[in-house]
């Protein structure tokens, strides 16, 4: 009996896979536990439409990430930190501060977990920071650290 899996199952396969299962196993285990449905023509068509929709959504997310990356490449974020005598800084700039400054200055919301700092930003100056927007898209954001 052909079955379309509705969820990932360790021994059977991943969600959306079409597997061949014995009649008894399908009727007594897979179907009652809602792990899968019988692979009828209607269910096969629904699966095809669902996969096409998922691909479309994934492509839209990729396009949006590329557009945001192009926008971020042109932006510069100013972050101020306190300094003592002789230009010695107190602490360093965190990814949370960069995300907050980006939202305040440019209205672009970035998740602080997606900002990758090459090293701790403890000195004044301009730095290139990588922002991972999508598994396939990364953007460079210029962060300028100045004295408060």
TrEMBL record:
GO BP term (any one): translation
Residue ranges crossing the lipid bilayer per the database entry: none
Keyword RNA-binding: yes
Domain of life assignment: Bacteria
InterPro entries per UniProt: Ribosomal_bL9 (IPR000244), Ribosomal_bL9/RNase_H1_N (IPR009027), Ribosomal_bL9_bac/chp (IPR020594), Ribosomal_bL9_C (IPR020069), Ribosomal_bL9_C_sf (IPR036791), Ribosomal_bL9_N (IPR020070), Ribosomal_bL9_N_sf (IPR036935)
Claim: Ribosomal protein is one of the keywords in the record: yes
Coiled coil start-end: 37-75
Keywords: Coiled coil, Ribonucleoprotein, Ribosomal protein, RNA-binding, rRNA-binding
GO molecular function, one term: rRNA binding
Domain Large ribosomal subunit protein bL9 C-terminal: 64-146
Domain Ribosomal protein L9: 1-46
Annotated GO CC locations: ribonucleoprotein complex; ribosome
Pfam families xref list: Ribosomal_L9_C, Ribosomal_L9_N
Gene3D superfamilies tied to this protein: Ribosomal protein L9, C-terminal domain, Ribosomal protein L9, N-terminal domain
Function of the molecule: Binds to the 23S rRNA.
Similarity comment: family membership: Belongs to the bacterial ribosomal protein bL9 family.
Name used for this protein in its record: Large ribosomal subunit protein bL9
